[in-house]
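Hi W., the iron/sulfur cluster complex you wanted:
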Amino acid sequence: MEKEIYLIAPPAHQYELGALIREVWPLCKIYDQPAAGLRGIVVSPEKGSVSLLAADGTTERVMAMEEPEEGAAPLSQKNSEKKAVLDLLQASLPWGILTGVRPSKVAYTYLEAGLSEEETEAAMRRQYRLRSDKARLCTRVAAEERALLADHTGRDISLYVGIPFCPSRCSYCSFISHDQRAYQKWGDAYLEALIREMEQSQGLLEGHRLQSFYMGGGTPTTLSASELQRVLLAADRMCHFETLKEVTVEAGRPDTITREKLKMLKDMGVTRISINPQSMNQSTLDTIGRRHSVEEIETAFAMARQAGFTNINMDFIVGLPGETLSDVRHSMDRVMAMKPDNLTVHTLAIKRSSRMNEEGSGKMVLEKALREAKTLDAMLALTMETAQTLGMHPYYMYRQKNMAGNFENIGYSLPGHEGLYNIEIMEERQNILAFGAGGVSKVYDPERNRLERVPNVKSVDEYIRRIDEMIERKRKGAQAVWKSKS
Ligand code: SF4
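Structure:
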């Protein structure tokens, strides 16, 4: 595995080619100029080839590029370069030359262009070199997404509300989330600002159909029942929950779930909740900084069923530090016993802002995961088998940077229980108005099939201080796109 290399490529393609090389040689440092003592990759579109150069500058290997193609499944110049680089490195990857975070979006485009599922799957294999199971997976997911979004128009809106507090911080977490102390310091002022942001943005909803509401974070159930209800009442005034297709609240940490909160959520019209164990092994939960027991997960799940929730998601992560295949099997056995309605399986990703990365263990965990890519593959296959045994099918997926073994995250669901908001976020063909610190509103322009992002500031403190500016920013950002279309 190369640790350092230089890459000479067309500037517009440098970034993606570098990302592809790092999928083959993870953690490899890539320079954009020849450097003494290093091997190099030179992409020459004018010669139609890519070359691997030895440290002394002599040519080790040359690979010719395929000709760009036109038609429903075109091969761009950049993809032609990426395929040649993969050949040059004599590598094959589960996701082939796709380095983006939304492989199903590519398959979606082919289905929209009129290709059948079989043709799309074949194009994903041929054009992007996807492994057969991955080509099938992203084509299936894209077909599901198309069916579920069939009646969506580019003018529809979904709402997101972020509660950036958690009882403690997980070691792999890269979300904007603060622990209990911050919640005690800022909680009240934050809720006030949040409700103000929602109320002042009411006008933006006029003339738009609303689809779904999602409250995430953080862990919204860190709030007390009455605080949570205050926010939900404001949201309900804004978008009338009973008219929406889906109202989700993440109740991610079992140690924040009480009967009182569950009853209130149900009474408020919440249709879907998430209880996220990540693992059903106590030693793993302790290692990643979750201060709750496995039993608390099962109790919270049972209480949610008793409260009447018929759509419960559970999140799991494969590749957590120290977990073996038999640990994952143990977690999946417990899932089989609980029978959730959705199962979301993430592959561990170590982001820069995570505690694991800051403490330096993240790199070690990733390196180990890369050495054991086959085990990760087997873990993912096991979770897929569990989902299938429970009668679920994959309905959304995405990839992340710095993901162990370059795999993916998959959302499975029982038919009719799919989380609509998850698909809307992935396919990026709809407006999302986001409220709260770190919320990123997405304003969609159907004519150009483009999203304009309107971010709120990430810091809770700043969000509270600059709330009027956030409100104005969202109004201006939305109107700039919508006005030009009306
Ligand atoms: S529960 Fe989720 S948001 Fe909260 S610290 Fe853990 S990973 Fe981050």
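The domain at 1-81 is CATH 3.40.50 (Rossmann fold).

W.
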